[in-house]
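Write out the bound-state structure for adenosine-5'-diphosphate.
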Amino acid sequence: MHLAQLRLRDFRNYARLDATFSPGFHLLLGANAQGKTNLLEAIYLLATLRSFRGAGGAQLVREQAKGYFVGATVEGQGRSSIKIYWSARERSLSLNGTPVKRLSDYLGTLRAVVFCTDDVQLVKGTSRGRRRFLDLLLTQSRPNYLTLLLRYTRALKARNALLKRPQLDEEQLAGFSTELIRVGQELIAARLELMPRIAPLAQQAFQRVSAGVDELSLDYLPTIRGDFGVALAASRTRERTYRTTLVGPHRDDVSFTVNGRPAGPFTSEGQKRTLAIALKMAQAEFLSGVHGSPPLLLIDDVMGELDSSRRAGFLPLLNEAHQAGGQVFMTCTAENWPKDLGRELVRWEVTKGDLQSIPNTLPG
Ligand SMILES: Nc1ncnc2c1ncn2[C@@H]1O[C@H](COP(=O)(O)OP(=O)(O)O)[C@@H](O)[C@H]1O
Ligand SMILES: [Mg+2]
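---
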């Protein structure tokens, strides 16, 4: 699949953009604060309906404007047209001219994996980022996962609201607990099933990028041993104190172990970055395997922070994606773009919210 057309109106610093993209490798060049990351953010929004920078709708609207529009044509099995509009008063999402009623019907129209400097938080940050990583991967690969996740989140919110009330309604609580347990068990099962499929891909990628023999292992860390219902019942006394749901997949985590030691405290900054890239490479390869075609790769400023041997491990992924008919968008400043990328590049200059293609200068 590839993004064939992108239209932006009042999105970040883009007043108006109409661009056409071929499959293959696109390099977005430009000085700082010109709109390179904003462009990747728009593409990621089409894929996931979220900003990878964690921005809410209002931040994405161009200053002084009322709302943003992001539109696209995606070529995959067929041709899809996507329209997203957001303002404080109105939001809409349509696919091929029809409003989207269920998100699960929409997600999958465009698949993307983003690589950015913030990815290192997967290793250094809190468990929330790691759960998100798993949840996104499962949303991108299992048709019903998002529906389950939304049901779980609803039940959890309702249950936590009840626990905060001065008078506890035991009957209502039991109702939400039943839903939480039923759906939560399915979430945990899906995550557990994913781990052994993603772990070898991450391990392989880690070795390629680190050009080393470091051993990486990934483990799911549940807050529950055994039955969710039993564990939830056992936590009731503590719940009364903390007034919130203390066990379940919303509190679970993933641990990374490098050479037998926890990656967080025992690895160098460079190894942490390598590990983060490896996780994203694993995500991309996993999705390629599940869907039979590579996702879009959105690579933001990552090259600049890699030394040459790590670059050499990372570049083959890009070439493979390219060769499999995929599409890659990579941002760089003029100084640090990897000259070792090869010839078949489409280069773009990004300047103050405008995109211009740079003609290929042929020697002679
Ligand atoms: N909502 C917005 N409205 C107008 N300009 C914005 C908005 N959000 C960000 N910008 C501008 O976008 C620019 C940063 O764009 P970005 O894509 O992050 O830059 P870079 O090219 O360095 O990746 C800054 O000049 C910033 O002021
Ligand atoms: Mg940027």
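---
Residues 130-265 form a domain with the Glutathione S-transferase Yfyf (Class Pi); Chain A, domain 2 fold (CATH 1.20.1050.90).
The chain has a mean pLDDT of 93.
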